[in-house]
Amino acid sequence: MRDKLKRLGIELPLLPTTSVGSLPKPPHLLEARQKVAAGKMGAAELRRLEEQATREWMTTQEELGLDVLVDGEMYRGDMAAYFAENLEGFKTSGLVRSYGNRYYRKPIIAGEIRWKKPITVDWWRFAQQLTRKPVKGMITGPYTMMDWSFNEYYPSRREACLALAKALHEEVKALAAAGAKIIQIDEPALSARPEELSDFAIDAIQTVTRGIDAYFICHICYGAFEFIYPEMLRLPVDNFDLEMSNSDLDLVELFRVHPFTKDLSFGVVDVHSHAVEDVETIVKRIRKALEVLHPEQLWIDPDCGLKTRSREEAVGKLKNMVEATRRVRSELG
pTM value? Predict the structure, then answer.
C-alpha cells in the first residue's frame, strides 16, 4: 500500500509511527466541559480551551517524533455520542456503562439519519495547519454507531447500519475534499456479531469509502478477531489497526495460518495498563510482528486510544514506542 501513499503525496519512513486517536484531556478541560453542561461556561471559552489542548498535543507529537499525527480528540466526549449529536435522526438516552467505570449517554435512533454538515473537518483542518506531517481524519464507523445505539426507527440492524454508512460517507467525502489523505474508520464493535460481517458490515464500509481517493485505516480493538479473520480482510480498507499487546500478541499465530494481506498498524503498547513498557519490550514486540509481516506492511502504534492514561503515562509509552521503532529500523538497514 506504500505505492498508494506515494501517489497521494505522502512519504513515510519504514515502520511509520502513529497514535490511534484519543489522547488524555487535561483536567482543566474536563472541568470546563462539566461547567458548560451545567450552564456555567460559554461554548466560546470551551472552544478556546479545546484548541489550546489540541495545540499542546500536536507540539508533543512533533517533539516525540511520530510520523502520522492525530488531533487528540480534545473536542469529543464519547466516540459514538459525539457523532450522534451531530447527525439528524438521533436523540440521547441516559447514562449507560461502557467498560470499567466509564459511562456514556447512549444514542437513540429516533428518525431518518441524515448528515447535516461537516462534523470533524474544522478540527482536522485546525490540526493539519499546525504541522507539515500528515494528520489522520477520524470517524466512528457505521457498524459501531449502529451497535452502540438504541434503534427505534429502522426495521433492522442492517438498515440502520447502511443508513449510517450513507451519512458518514458524506463526512468522509468532506474530509477528503478538505485535504485529508489518511482517514481512519473506528469500528471497535465489528466482531460483536461475526455473522453480520459478511451480511452487511462489509457493505457498510464499502458505502463509506466508495469513490474517495484516500488511504483508509480501520481500527478494531479488543474484539474476538478469531471469529472474523480472515473474512475481515474483505473490508475495503488499506490498513487494519489492531490491539495486539493486551492479548499477548496471540494474533500473530493466527497470521501464520492465514497470512495478513494488507497493511497492519500493530499495537505495541497496552493502553489499559498504567505501566510504561520499556524500549526493549517494545522492540521484541515489533520483531514478533516482523515474523509474519513484511516491513513495508507494518505500522507501529498503541493498542487503542490513550485517553484513559495520564499525560505522563501516554507520553512515556509513545516516547519508548518511537525509540523502539528507530532501533528496529536501524536493524533493518
Answer: 0.95
